[in-house]
Write a structure and sequence with these properties.
mainly alpha; 80% helix; globular
Length: 404
């Protein structure tokens, strides 16, 4: 008979359960859209801007509600918030599948993207922090290692399902997956409402850290928050722009379509490789150090692309560097705030940090499309280099100012 601690909320199965829900969440709510968008556009007979505009408008609303979601997580616990989030995500997917015009499409897409703040990484990191307190770093690394397979699984799965179903049928199936898979897992394994500022004895043990790892307060805390928000927002712009336009950018440098697809496919394994290395060897490295070192890989990869993007080997090196940076950035989004600010009020802190980044992320695909059209691939890539370099610089400033 399995030990009972495996099945209690916050127990040993918390990370695998969250890993499954993150794969289903990102796969159904985010990555599937890239594959389904052309079918949606074709059926409705409008220009692609309307299809992507509804998606972007939803992301904007998600940025607006992120602080509210974080506060609800701190007040009521992640079990309630993430369970309701998955239920609403499933209903929103079902509503999207029934959209019959622009108004109903935009309404369903807005609802769908608004609830992502209750089911994506930031909420999951809060669940791990509520369960593990200041010791959640390794758990965050393990979770992102599992979640990194979302695009690897859902891009081909969605393409295969389109051979059997139309886009509405795919979204109906994914809506049911939220209701039948994610809701039960969140309900069964996530920690419930906190009765104290920290959730358990394990959290209480680290709530008052020794002086050498004391959490930031006052002006230092505000400065660190602003630097983190700036870095996360700039990185979010670059990642969002590349998620939509990477193949266009690679082909703009002269690569054949098949080669560009192959290089793009290297991102997923590179993300997982970076997360695996961090999980195995990163415990001895402060999270702020991991943050700025990994952030430097992003402009470095883009400079490689700018210098020799027409060569498949150089473009492949870009994909590896960029993918590792993306993979580690997901981890440091949870570990750095935990190191600097502590586990108390972690949900609200993550919501506040996420809000500006989600707004910028929503605008990135359209802004970068205009940059590509008017400035060309070289100028557009330089913009990404500049943004990612500024993000790395902000994280380096944060690391240098971290009190010993």
């Amino acid at each position: 008979m399995p030990p009972p601690h495996l099945f209690r909320p916050g127990g040993s199965l918390l990370i695998p359960a969250l890993g499954v829900t993150q794969i289903f969440g990102y796969g159904a709510l985010y990555y599937a859209f890239t594959v389904l968008a052309p079918r949606i556009t074709a059926e409705f007979g409008w220009v692609p801007e309307w299809t992507f505009g509804g998606f972007a408008f939803g992301l904007l609303l998600g940025g607006a509600v992120a602080p509210v979601t974080g506060s609800l997580i701190d007040r009521y616990g992640t079990r309630l918030v993430m369970t309701l989030g998955s239920a609403l995500a499933g209903l929103s997917l079902l509503a999207l599948a029934e959209a019959r015009g622009l108004a109903s499409y935009v309404a369903a897409m807005v609802a769908l993207q608004a609830v992502t703040t209750a089911v994506f990484y930031d909420a999951a990191f809060a669940a791990l922090t509520q369960a593990r307190g200041g010791q959640a770093r390794r758990a965050i690394s393990q979770l992102t290692l599992i979640g990194g397979f979302a695009s690897t699984l859902f891009w081909p799965l969605t393409s295969a399902l389109l051979g059997l179903l139309d886009w509405r049928g795919v979204y109906r199936l994914y809506g049911l997956s939220q209701l039948l898979v994610c809701v039960p897992l969140h309900l069964a394994f996530l920690p419930g409402r906190l009765r104290r500022p920290v959730a358990s004895a394990a959290v209480q043990a680290v709530a008052e850290p020794p002086p050498e790892t004391a959490y930031l307060k006052g002006a230092e805390r505000r400065r660190a928050f602003l630097l983190l928000a700036l870095a996360f927002s700039l990185q979010g712009f670059v990642v969002s722009a590349m998620a939509v336009h990477m193949l266009t950018l690679l082909r703009g440098f002269g690569l054949a379509a098949s080669v560009a697809v192959g290089i793009g496919a290297m991102l997923g394994p590179s993300q997982v490789a970076g997360r695996l290395v961090e999980m195995l060897f990163g415990r001895a490295v402060p999270p702020v150090t991991t943050a700025w070192v990994s952030a430097c890989l992003m402009p470095l990869g883009l400079l490689l692309l700018l210098a020799g993007g027409a060569l498949p080997v150089v473009a492949g090196a870009f994909a590896v560097a960029f993918g590792i940076s993306m993979g580690l950035s997901s981890i440091v989004r949870g570990t750095v705030p935990l190191q600097l600010f502590g586990p108390v009020g972690f949900g609200a802190m993550m919501g506040k940090l996420s809000a500006p980044g989600l707004v910028i992320k929503a605008a990135a695909p359209l802004v970068f499309a205009i940059a590509l059209e008017r400035g060309g691939v070289a100028i557009s890539t330089l913009v990404l280099v500049g943004f990612s370099a500024l993000a790395a610089g902000a994280l380096l400033m944060l690391a240098r100012s971290r009190p010993a």
